[in-house]
């Protein structure tokens, strides 16, 4: 049943007509052609389908999810596609990842947003669970949205990932998280996540085994 919309999402990707010395993929989002340089030897430098799902949601729900002048942080930004699309949609974006990925991330962000965005996005190191208060102090860092695409997979840092979500999320912060379901151990992370956050599935794509979630902190003050 999800085949037409999955075809539309995946149809946003295009490839170069000629192979050059740099490996890149192209995407059409937010009225722009986005070129992403990848590194096939690193998980964090490849565009995964979850990122396309999240980008498609941001573009097609721009009225309900208005990013103009909103503070957005992407964790595990990888190649930067989600951060780039959020920037093109008017957000004030901080794209974060591990130090070894920042060079390629910075290249992609700058190449695709310079002179195209209301707010030039910034790239910053974020190793999950490490020096969170030092680098992102609770007193001065406020994010309207936390975005994450495919951050849950077979890695040993799920505890640190949950700690990072918890640290960055204020009572009114909205988390948008696209997840590909793989192994049972990683899938259990959803249950742990729900001990801290109210979780709502807003899109589901069984053929891709990907779900898109919206989450907010439990116990927040409600109007």
TrEMBL record:
<protein>
    <submittedName>
        <fullName>MT21E methyltransferase</fullName>
    </submittedName>
</protein>
<dbReference type="InterPro" id="IPR019410">
    <property type="entry name" value="Methyltransf_16"/>
</dbReference>
<dbReference type="InterPro" id="IPR029063">
    <property type="entry name" value="SAM-dependent_MTases_sf"/>
</dbReference>
<keyword id="KW-0489">Methyltransferase</keyword>
<keyword id="KW-0949">S-adenosyl-L-methionine</keyword>
<keyword id="KW-0808">Transferase</keyword>
<dbReference type="GO" id="GO:0008168">
    <property type="term" value="F:methyltransferase activity"/>
</dbReference>
<dbReference type="GO" id="GO:0032259">
    <property type="term" value="P:methylation"/>
</dbReference>
<dbReference type="Pfam" id="PF10294">
    <property type="entry name" value="Methyltransf_16"/>
</dbReference>
């Amino acid at each position: 049943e999800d085949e037409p919309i999955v075809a539309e999402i995946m149809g946003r990707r295009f490839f170069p007509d000629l192979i050059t010395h740099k490996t890149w993929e192209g995407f059409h989002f937010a009225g722009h052609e986005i070129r992403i340089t990848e590194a096939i030897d690193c998980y964090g430098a490849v565009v995964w389908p979850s990122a396309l799902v999240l980008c498609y949601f941001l573009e097609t729900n721009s009225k309900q999810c208005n990013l103009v002048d909103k503070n957005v942080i992407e964790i595990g930004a990888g190649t930067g596609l989600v951060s780039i699309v959020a920037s093109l949609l008017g957000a004030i974006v901080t794209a974060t990842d591990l130090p070894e990925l920042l060079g390629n991330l910075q290249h992609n962000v700058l190449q695709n947003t310079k002179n195209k965005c209301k707010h030039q996005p910034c790239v910053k190191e974020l190793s999950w669970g490490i020096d969170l208060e030092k680098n992102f102090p609770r007193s001065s860092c406020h994010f309207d949205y936390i975005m994450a695409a495919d951050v849950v997979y077979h890695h040993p840092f799920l505890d640190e990932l949950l700690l990072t979500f918890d640290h960055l999320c204020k009572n009114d912060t909205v988390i948008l998280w696209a997840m590909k379901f793989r192994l049972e151990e990683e899938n259990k992370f959803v249950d742990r996540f729900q001990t801290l956050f109210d979780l709502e599935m807003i899109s589901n794509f069984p053929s891709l085994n990907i779900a898109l979630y919206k989450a907010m902190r439990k116990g927040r003050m409600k109007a």
